[in-house]
Amino acid sequence: MKQTGRTLDDILGSIGKRSPDIPGSTASILAGLMGLSMAKMAILVSNHPINDPCLRAALEKIDRLSCDLLQAAEQDRSNFLNYMEVLRERCAVEGKQADVSAVREAESGATAQPLDAARLIVEALEHLNEKSSLVDHSVASDLHAGAAILNASFTGIMMAVKINLEPDRMADMRQHTAGKRAELAGRRDTAFAALKRAAAQQGFQY
Predict the structure, then answer these.
(1) What average pLDDT score do residues 136-154 get?
(2) Residue 81 to residues 2, 23, 26, 29, 74: CA-CA distances in angstroms?
(3) C-beta pairs of 177-181 under 8 Å, 24+ apart in sequence
(4) Reported confidence tier of residue 54, pLDDT bands at 50, 70, 90
(5) Residues 201 and 192: beta-carbon distance below 8 Å
(6) Is residue 95 left, alpha or beta, with left meaning phi > 0 and alpha meaning psi from -120 to 50?
(7) What are the beta bridge partners of residue 96?
(8) DSSP label at 6?
(9) Domains present along the chain, CATH in parentheses
């Protein structure tokens, strides 16, 4: 079942158990979607002409990012479930070790998707920074709260990536993605610092 077809109770129950069927990376992506929705609400509620092209473009990008993040969450969960299946099938069968190449392939898939989701989260933070001036003071707290959730989402995703990359068998992927991970972290830091300054001008502190 798609995540959008599940109740919040079901999602929370699927995360908070010993053997979750929603991994931490997917949970972080779903949290980011909630943050982005809060920011969208703040822009919608602000006082703009209904046909303002700047407003329309801002909302269209949020909708695109939301759609892409939801697809990323679905694929991330699918990759995680595949990884768990590989481990179940190949690990400790009559004392034999797992097929390292199969595990590595599944692990790679479970790492690449969160990295792409992290990129989308960074794009969202950059977009909110660019559009924060569109938001009225009365709802600015919602935009910045949404941005704070997106920032936490990025952190959770990157923690999941880090733990996936720690095994020795992932050394080449760890090296291959080092530049991308550093770039995303730098862009996140820049966008979030600017959002914090914008919030301070409105009298809010992260």
Answers:
(1) 95
(2) 14, 9, 11, 16, 11
(3) 177/111, 177/115, 180/115, 181/115
(4) confident
(5) no
(6) left
(7) 93
(8) S
(9) 24-199 (1.20.120.680)
